[in-house]
Amino acid sequence: MTAMEFSLLKTFAESKGRVLNRDQILEQAHDRPWDPFDRSIDIRISRLRRKIEQTPEKPSIIKTIRGLGHLYDPD
């Protein structure tokens, strides 16, 4: 796991059960300045899912809540 993936996972774990939008995730976990069109966080979430999900194509731990953001629910 890369340092950025760990930071992202830590951000999700600290907000367990809460939906985080892209801005919140970027502010809390990103290690460099960002702009609204920066899609790198989506790539990092995808890579993290491949490492922690049993079936990354159907995530159950880091769920996408359409129109809102992402929800971390390891239970």
UniProtKB/TrEMBL annotation:
Protein's name in the database: Winged helix-turn-helix domain-containing protein
Tell me which SUPFAM superfamilies the record gives. C-terminal effector domain of the bipartite response regulators (SSF46894)
Q: Give the lineage.
A: Bacteria, Pseudomonadati, Pseudomonadota, Alphaproteobacteria, Rhodobacterales
Which positions does the record tag as DNA-binding? 1-74
Q: Which InterPro entries match?
A: OmpR/PhoB-type_DNA-bd, Sig_transdc_resp-reg_C-effctor, WH-like_DNA-bd_sf
Q: Which UniProt keywords apply?
A: DNA-binding
The source organism is: Sedimentitalea todarodis
Q: Does the record bear DNA-binding in its keywords?
A: yes
Q: Name one Pfam family in it.
A: Trans_reg_C
UniProt domain OmpR/PhoB-type: residue ranges: 1-74
Q: Which PROSITE patterns match?
A: OMPR_PHOB
Q: Does the keyword rRNA-binding apply?
A: no
